[in-house]
Amino acid sequence: MVVKFTDFKKLTLEDRDIFQEYLKDYEFNTYEYSFLTLYVWRKMFNVTFCITDDALIIKKFTDKTGSYFMQPIGYKNNLKDLVLKLDDIKKNEEKSENLFRDIEMPFLYKLLDIFPKKICFCEDKNNFDYICRSKDLILLSGGNFHRKKNKYNQFVNNYKYHVKELDNNSVVEDCIYISQKWFEERGNNDSMLKYELDGIKEALPNFDLLGIKGVAVYIDNKISGFTAGEKLNSKMGVIHFEKADTFYNGIYEFMNKTFVEKYFSDVEYVNMQEDLGIKGLRKAKKAYNPVKLEKKFIVNLI
Asked: Exposure pattern of 271-296 as b/e (b: 16+ CB <10 Å)?
């Protein structure tokens, strides 16, 4: 089967069942391949997909990166032929600098084995995922978490709060409100944050369908922040969104601990996503003492 550019269709909510079938045994260590991730960021990355040779092929495009493919999902014994087909598509597209991005190490090893002298790759360091132990985020014990524990305690001791689950339209509306407020205060000139806000507005109302779990924090009966994520598999959960009013000291520490304790206590790891090379974000994620950074690679066939 010859795959053409026109065979790729834009990702929609109605495509969830197709992706769930291919991703039902989610074995990735990054959060990139989750349907929820792809759906939230589909407009920023112009996510399209097709099914060919019984494999799910996902393609992204941005002005900065050009078009590229993610790891094919569901392929059998035809990976070599599939990669060559995708490379042909790459060569015929107007702007395509890389064949693959968002590639994890196990797939890179497979490519190196099949094409031992034809693979060129580099680490995509700004997109490494921060992986934390769930029990660390719940217990906040030991010297490495002393500051986090203090902030958590300050919040608990200083504010009259209550927590609601993200399980009804009223709470969803409150979470969208605080996200809009957060954006207006910080991100009006940031196109990525605007895409994120749009993704929140589209995803949260479909929390049940998309498997989103979340907690919203109210102080004096006013929405003050929320955390939302999903369980990727039996070993790992991912936090997709954390938005809060920083007027309340320790609110992020409180939300993180409360959310992980409620929804991820039965998984070993929590994926905190990447830092995008942003110094402030990097500092914030390192403060949670990740046990590892999950690498992602950019790959080309030469």
From this structure: bbbbbeeeeeeeeebeebbbeeebbb
Question: Which class for 65: exposed (0-12), middle (13-18), buried (19 or more C-beta within 10 A)?
Answer: middle
Report angle CA 175, 176, 181 to the nearest 5 degrees: 100
Burial of 302 per CB tally in 10 Å (0-12, 13-18, 19+)? exposed
Total count of residues recorded for the chain: 302
Q: Determine the Cα–Cα distance for residues 55 and 41; give it in Å rounded to an integer.
A: 22
Residue 3: predicted pLDDT? 52
Distance (Å, whole) CA 227 – CA 145: 20
Are the C-beta atoms of 275 and 285 separated by less than 8 Å? yes
pLDDT digits (tens, 9 = 90+) for 268-294: 999 999 999 999 999 999 999 999 999
Q: Quick one: 231 exposed, middle or buried, by C-beta within 10 A (0-12, 13-18, 19+)? A: middle
For residue 207, what are its two tokens? 């929390």
Give the span between the Cα atoms of 113 and 275, in whole angstroms. 31
Q: Is the pLDDT of residue 5 over 80?
A: no
Buried residues in 109-131 as b, exposed as e (16+ CB within 10 A): eebeeebeeebebeebeebbbbb
Q: What is the per-residue pLDDT across 119-160, written as a single tens digit (0 to 9) for each?
A: 999 999 999 999 999 999 999 999 999 999 999 999 999 999
